[in-house]
Amino acid sequence: MSIKKNIVASYASQIYVTLVGILALPFYIKYMGAEAYGLVGFFTMLQTWFALLDLGLTPTIARETARFRAGSYDNLSYRRLFRALSVIFLGIALMGGGLLFLLSDYLSTHWLKINNLDLNEVQFAIQIMAVSVALRWMTGLYRGVVTGSERLVWLSGFNSGIASLRFLGIFPVMWHFGATPTVFFQYQLLIALVEFFGLWFKSHQLLPKLDIAQKKIMGWSIKPIRPVLGFSLSIALTGGIWVFATQTDKLIMSNLLSLEDYGYFTLAVLVAGGIMMVSAPVSGALMPRMVKLDSEGKQDQLIQLYRKSTQLVTVLAGSVAIILATFSKPILYLWTGDQHIANVAAETLTFYAIGYGFLAVSAFPYYLQYAKGKLKLHIVGSLLYITTLLPLLLILTNHFGMQGAGYAWLIVNIVYFFTWTGYIHHIYLKGVHFSWLLRDVIQPIIISVIIAILLTKFVTIGTGKFNLLMILVIKTVIVITICVASSSYLRSALFLIISRKYEKYKTT
Description:
Blueprint: H1 3-32, H2 34-50, H3 57-69, H4 75-102, H5 104-111, H6 119-148, H7 152-168, H8 170-177, H9 181-206, H10 212-218, H11 229-256, H12 259-295, H13 299-326, H14 328-336, H15 339-362, H16 364-372, H17 376-400, H18 402-428, H19 433-455, H20 465-486, H21 488-507
């Protein structure tokens, strides 16, 4: 499967999933209320924290699937690895989901600050969350097989279908049965089951077939994971640090803020988090291909792919970050129709958007280390990241509330980007960093930043919703166009496409 087709399909799916999720949120608040929506934000955070139990297994099966396709495994060895990981996934899902289920009483009565919702209803909702989170986490194993097989076109279509059911299918259900947390989370459990069985079936289609003799000797041992245990544990540590670093603010806020205010906070952060969703399709398509190129010793092609992908993410994720940061208040007002939400959450959205913009590009040195299977320095960098973020987060949050979390997030991500990425490039891509920084990151984005700041004076909430929408659309098109034109790779690719279309037109 062409990497371009995989990236295009992944982007189309990710854009759809992100947009449909974001567009649905104001209606959740409208029909369920801000406090009930706070439970939705809490559910989202729990899913991310559950990733701490992954132990590096999801990226490991994706990487080993890619290596199997490159000839590093025979059919029997790969199936043994998959079976061993399946047993571990199931065990962790049962333990993690069970623990969360048992903690439902404590979370509903002592952790969350509930004002109007019924405590029994909240506890029941958390119990349903526990089962849903465990099911969705289990799908990581099957997603890893599909991703490592580079069947991202199928996965993109499947993700879009599940997102439609999850975010849009809930509305007729709530209209019929009531817009309550119980109805909402029971429906989410049903969709989690559909997602689980869909991915289970597809992954088993992709697994290599074994003959009768091989099936008899395959066994149930976990020994096949020993050769990849070091890599898996490295991924687990970095993944755990990542979750701890990026979700601690959400966890702290869920206890410090009322459930209603926590709903506003998570709404702003979720919108900013869409920046990472924009970059996720590139990493999903890029990482298996980089592993394959590194395994084949094609370093020049790996570096070329790395730099082109950097420009692509800088343009796409950077454009979104610029728009969200500079037009945060009118975007929130236009999206929710609520002036109070726009006033409360705009500053938080601005700082988180800029921070996520830096973070999207900062992920590239990790992709490089992942491809080479050398994650020691990434662990060191992640530890430095978290030991800097946590004290700053606690200090600034204590003084400035949710805005303080935004300040801490922004400061740490800027410092990390301009220091650690250069060090990693010095180790693995000597002589490339400054060219990468100037040509692949700064050049595609700097003019758009200046233009966007100048354009903020022409955007006011009092112009009416339709006029405000048209102004924001025009500003967005301007920013994206400037970014694309400033990127040497995208500019050349676009020129090539236009030239081919013109040549084709001339010959007809």
